[in-house]
């Protein structure tokens, strides 16, 4: 068996794979946060709870309605995104004229409520969600064993991330979005319905979180608190990347996932905190974040 | 905080400067009411609950010093409460034994072997630990503003949480249990509830007066200037970063005082004091009571802890109700209880 730096390659690549998987979730979630922040100027603390709702939605669809994983992948983001639209219309839209911190506090309260309600209903232990039959098994790559489902998670989240990037940076709709991020009033003066655009943007960001939740359901068990600690790591990812660029949040997400995986190989005790340590270092060297611009 | 889009600063919503204030008599009345309440309440309310209230009131007042008067939302204040609790509990139980420091090949013999600390020294140790952590965290956090500041403090606090989970001296999931309360100055036995209550009372009132003094000092005026308009404060020649750092360290230190005292009262330092839910709770308490009011946090703590005590047997409902209160406060009750009261009597409280 071959070794790299005294570590068996099997273990090294195994951890790198886990790192890439985590990185996929970091990228999807920080992308959603960045899209929402760009237009609404709100950091969506409920993002972790909405990720959890996506996973629960998939569980419900399978166990109560008999709809498969593939339906869940399509329906869960729509359903959870719709709840996001309701939240934006009923609550967040009242806060745009206030300090940004109020949006943060409101979504924190929502996260507590959502997580509390699910915990009340389902308890803290996880519910199992099995891998769809089409993605069972795996490939032997010679140097490591690659489960099909994990490969699917990495590839499909890359596609969704890049698709979102393409939509925002290269299409006409995206150009409206970027213009409204710069100056909302001016875009409205050109006859574009910005309030609706804001609502749909929030819905879209939430849908991305729910999509990540469905993808996570077969890997981690479906539990009410699955998003609670994750969202704090994603905040650190967002601080490291800076929310100025869409591509920036995607790249930062994947790279930090890998960094975490590598830490697990070489210094496991620090794997919980490595992203926070990187955040501290980035703050010292480039406070605006790697891809950010100081406003 | 003040962005060109015209979003009003925190202060404009919560604490619109009230018209001309004649003297401060009403403040003294409020202060005397508060002191009288905590002096008399143990006769009809469970004293241990009141001690918890006073510790958290000091914690919330320290937090409010930062959010209400400098406009910085720290979402990681539990790290100061928690680390001070651990430090105080550890030295009160185990003393301090350091044979030597090893840095790679360098070996510095210290041979420190101190017996378990007396309560006042244990609290001092906790406060010191919180102050040092506050300085380090503050240096990092003040490099960004507004919402980033909140995210950075939250992330740093999570790092401290994982540290406390894994470090050898914190007892991991169990925490440090059965911490002796000891004898204050070697004389007063704190295992007596009355003595403990009096000690907590003195610490709380002392801390409260320190905060009151800070707010109304020239330094406090600069803090408020930074909250209202940081670029203007800079252009007037104030080194705003330095002021923010000092305010952050002061707030962390006082939060540490609360945490160390709390650990002695409950004879326990545990992970829940460093967890992010605790950071959220202190935000809630301050919000309910009234941001940027002197007495708001105290009232908020009474309200929130009272509610939690009442709902304690309902499990997950505590979180749900907390979340609902957050939502309601942000949407319709941004001034908080004391803020509304102050508006009603047209005087700042």
What would your notes on this structure say?
The complex is a heterodimer of chains A (295) and B (349). With 295 residues, chain A is mainly α. Chain A is built from eleven helices and four strands, in the order ββααααββααααααα. The longest helix of chain A is centred in the N-terminal third of the chain and has 32 residues, at 9-40. Chain B has 349 residues and is mainly alpha-helical. Chain B has a domain at 47-275. Chain B is built from 14 helices and four strands. Classes of the chains: A mainly alpha (295), B mainly alpha (349). At the A-B interface, helix 4, helix 9 and helix 11 of A face helix 6, helix 11 and helix 13 of B.
SSE layout:
The complex is a heterodimer of chains A (295) and B (349).
Chain A: E1 3-4, E2 7-8, H1 9-40, H2 47-64, H3 69-90, H4 100-122, E3 138-140, E4 145-147, H5 148-170, H6 172-182, H7 184-189, H8 194-216, H9 228-241, H10 246-266, H11 274-285
Helix pairs in contact in A: 1-5, 1-8, 1-9, 1-10, 2-3, 2-4, 2-8, 3-8, 5-6, 9-10, 9-11
Chain B: H1 10-14, H2 25-40, H3 47-67, H4 78-94, E1 96-103, E2 106-114, H5 119-141, H6 146-166, E3 183-184, E4 188-189, H7 193-215, H8 218-228, H9 230-235, H10 240-266, H11 276-289, H12 296-311, H13 317-332, H14 336-345
Antiparallel strand pairs in B: 1-2, 3-4
What is the structure about, briefly put?
The complex is a heterodimer of chains A (295) and B (349). Chain A has a domain of 196 residues. Helices cover 69% and strands 3% of the residues of chain A.
């Amino acid at each position: 068996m071959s070794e790299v730096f005294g570590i068996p390659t099997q273990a090294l690549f195994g951890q790198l794979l886990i790192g890439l998987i985590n990185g996929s979730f970091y990228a999807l979630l920080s992308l959603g946060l960045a899209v929402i922040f760009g237009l609404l100027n709100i950091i969506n603390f409920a993002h972790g709870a909405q990720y959890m709702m996506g996973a629960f939605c998939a569980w419900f669809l399978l166990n109560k309605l008999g709809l498969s994983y593939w339906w869940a992948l399509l329906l869960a983001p729509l359903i959870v995104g719709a709840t996001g639209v309701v939240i934006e219309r009923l609550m967040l839209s009242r806060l745009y004229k206030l300090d940004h911190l109020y949006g943060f506090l409101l979504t924190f309260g929502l996260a507590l409520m959502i997580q509390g309600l699910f915990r009340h209903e389902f308890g803290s232990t996880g519910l199992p969600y099995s891998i769809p039959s089409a993605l069972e098994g795996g490939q032997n790559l010679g140097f490591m064993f690659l489960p099909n489902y994990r490969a699917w998670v990495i590839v499909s989240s890359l596609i969704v991330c890049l698709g979102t990037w393409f939509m925002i940076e290269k299409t006409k709709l995206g150009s409206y979005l970027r213009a409204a991020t710069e100056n909302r009033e001016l875009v409205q003066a050109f006859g574009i319905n910005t309030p609706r655009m804001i609502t749909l943007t929030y819905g879209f960001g939430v849908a991305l979180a729910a999509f990540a939740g469905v993808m996570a359901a077969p890997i981690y068990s479906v539990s009410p608190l699955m998003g609670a600690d994750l969202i704090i790591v994603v905040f650190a990812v967002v601080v490291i990347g800076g929310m100025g660029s869409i591509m920036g949040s995607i790249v930062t997400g994947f790279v930090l996932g890998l960094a975490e995986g590598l830490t697990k190989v070489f210094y496991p005790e620090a794997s919980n905190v490595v992203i926070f340590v990187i955040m501290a270092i980035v703050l010292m060297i480039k406070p605006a974040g790697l891809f950010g611009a100081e406003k | 905080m003040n962005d060109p889009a015209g979003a009003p600063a925190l202060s404009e919503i919560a604490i619109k400067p009230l018209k001309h204030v004649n003297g401060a008599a009403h403040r003294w009345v409020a202060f005397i009411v508060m002191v009288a309440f905590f002096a008399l309440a143990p006769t009809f309310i469970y004293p241990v609950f009141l001690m918890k209230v006073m510790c958290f009131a000091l914690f919330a007042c320290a937090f409010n010093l930062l959010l209400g008067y400098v406009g910085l939302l720290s979402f990681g204040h539990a790290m100061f409460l928690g680390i001070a609790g651990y430090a105080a509990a550890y030295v009160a139980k185990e003393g301090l034994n350091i044979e030597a420091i090893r840095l790679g090949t360098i070996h510095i013999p210290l041979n420190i072997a101190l017996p378990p600390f007396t309560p006042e020294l244990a609290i001092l140790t906790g406060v010191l630990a919180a102050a040092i952590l506050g300085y380090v965290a503050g240096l990092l956090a003040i490099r960004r503003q507004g919402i980033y500041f909140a995210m950075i403090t939250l992330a740093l606090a999570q790092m401290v949480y994982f540290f406390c989970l894994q470090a050898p001296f914190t007892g991991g999931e169990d925490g440090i249990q059965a911490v002796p309360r000891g004898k204050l100055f070697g004389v007063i036995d704190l295992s007596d509830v009355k003595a403990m209550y009096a000690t907590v009372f003195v610490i709380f009132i002392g801390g409260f007066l320190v905060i009151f003094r800070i707010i109304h000092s020239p330094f406090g005026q600069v803090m408020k200037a930074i909250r209202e308009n940081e670029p203007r404060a800079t252009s007037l020649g104030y080194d705003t970063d330095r002021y923010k750092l000092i305010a952050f360290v002061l707030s962390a230190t006082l939060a540490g005082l609360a945490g160390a005292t709390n650990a002695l009262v409950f004879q326990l330092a545990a992970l829940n004091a460093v967890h992010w839910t605790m950071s959220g709770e202190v935000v809630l308490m301050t919000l309910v009571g009234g941001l940027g009011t002197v007495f708001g946090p105290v009232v908020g703590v009474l309200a929130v802890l009272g509610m939690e005590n009442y709902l304690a047997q309902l499990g997950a409902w505590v979180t749900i109700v907390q979340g609902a209160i957050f939502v309601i406060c942000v949407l319709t009750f941004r001034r908080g209880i004391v803020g509304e009261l102050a508006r009603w009597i047209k005087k700042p409280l």
